[in-house]
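Table S2 (text version). Query chain:
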Amino acid sequence: MLNEKLLDILAHPSDGAVSIVTNGEDGPHLVNTWNSYIVVTPDDKLLIPAYGYNKTEKNLSNQNHVILSIASREIEGYKGTGTGFIVKGTTRFVKSGENFDRMKEKFSWIRAVLEITVTDAKQML
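Corresponding C-alpha cell output:
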C-alpha cells in the first residue's frame, strides 16, 4: 500500500509539479507532469497521461526503472507544512486496454499512459 502522506499530495487540489527521471544512452532525462494528472489504481500503480514523452519511452524501453520527485507545500511534513517524496518504480507504456481507456476519457489528448509500479517511496521533508 502507498504511504498515506504521498496519497495526500497526489489528491491535494493545489497542483504541484512532479518530476520524472529516466536514464538513457546520453545520461539522465527529465520530464514533468502535475500531481493532479496522476491516477492511483486500486492495486497502487500510478498512471500518468503521456502526450509527448518520446525520449522517456525510448529510455524506458531499454531500462524500465524510473525515479519521481513528488512534493507539496500544502501537506504537513516532518517539521511543518511542506513535504515531498522520492518515488522509485518499474514502468511500462500502456497504449490500449482498461487503464488506457480510463485515462483517455479523462485526458483526451494522450497517446499513451505511463504506468508505474512503485517499488520504494521515501519521504524527504
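Notes on Table S2: Residues 54-62 form the longest helix (9 residues). The CA atoms of residues 58 and 79 lie 39 Å apart.
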